[in-house]
Write a structure and sequence with these properties.
Layout lengths: L4 E6 L3 H13 L4 E6 L2 H10 L10 E5 L7 H11 L8 E6 L4 H8 L4 E6 L4 H16 L1
Helix pairs in contact: 2-3
């Protein structure tokens, strides 16, 4: 089993993407990090690689509010292709929105593991990565 965690950030805010990459790198866990600036880029990557599950992320940190294709639109498309994806992908909806409507909507999508309000604290991020790596080993 490969212990490298493929981690994906989907967020239109370049500063947030940069700080998330730095935070993930600072955990010192073995991971490959990819980033997309909107949901359409991310879903197109997945569609282009449906035959290559090994390039898919193990975890996605997905923003809600993005141009072109927002997080909820991404999830609509992801749910359609999920049966063709040959690996488990853990998805966290990450947003600065405290709107109960957004939180409830995210909680109703079974493919979303959790809703996290930005910013993700470093300890929370480490715990998430540790749990994902532990799940892969068991």
């Amino acid at each position: 089993m490969n212990d490298v965690l493929k981690t994906c950030i989907v967020d239109d805010d370049s500063i947030y993407r940069f700080t998330m990459v730095k935070a993930l790198e600072s955990t010192k866990f073995p991971m490959e990090i990819m980033a997309f600036s909107d949901g359409e880029e991310a879903i197109n990557f997945m569609l282009d690689n449906l035959e290559k599950d090994s390039v898919f992320p193990d975890v996605i940190f997905l923003d809600i509010d993005m141009p072109i294709m927002d997080g909820f639109q991404f999830m609509e498309e992801y749910v359609k292709i999920k049966p063709r994806v040959g690996k488990k992908i853990t998805i966290y909806m990450v947003s600065s929105s405290l709107d109960p409507v957004d939180i409830e909507r995210a909680n109703k999508i079974s493919a979303i593991s959790d809703y996290i309000v930005k910013p993700i604290g470093l300890n929370r991020l480490k715990n998430i990565i540790e749990e994902l790596l532990e799940d892969r080993r068991s």
